[in-house]
Fold this sequence. Notes:
About 40% of the residues lie in helices and about 20% in strands. The chain is of the alpha+beta class.
Amino acid sequence: MIDPPHRYRPEQRLRHRRQFDAVFDAHCRKNVGPLAVRGRPNDLPHNRLGLIVPRRVGNAVVRNRVKRLLRESFRLLQHELPAGYDVVVQVHPHPPGTLGDYQRWLARAVRDLDDEWRRRRG
C-alpha cells in the first residue's frame, strides 16, 4: 500500500525526553507569534515534530485544539519546509488562531531555524 503524500507518520514525532533535550541543548530558538520554536539538524531525510503546550494556554479542550492545529499545519507543510530537522514547538498563552495562522507561524519559524543553522555551519 502506498502512503498518501501528506501523511503524518510515527517516525515524524519526537517522543522521548532525550530527543527533546537534544533540541533544547542546541540553543537555537525562534519566536514567531505565540510560538517558541527550537530546532536542530537530525541527519534524517524528514523533519520530526515535538509539541509543548502547557496548562497556561487553556483548559484541555483548548490545548488539544492547538495541538491538532499544529500537527495539521506540520503535516500540510512537511514537503515545503527545509528537511532534516528536529523541531520542538512551545506554545505561549494566546487566543487560539486559525489553521492558516499556525501554518504561517510554523513555516516562518522553521525557515528561520534553517537559515540560522546554515549561518552557523559557515
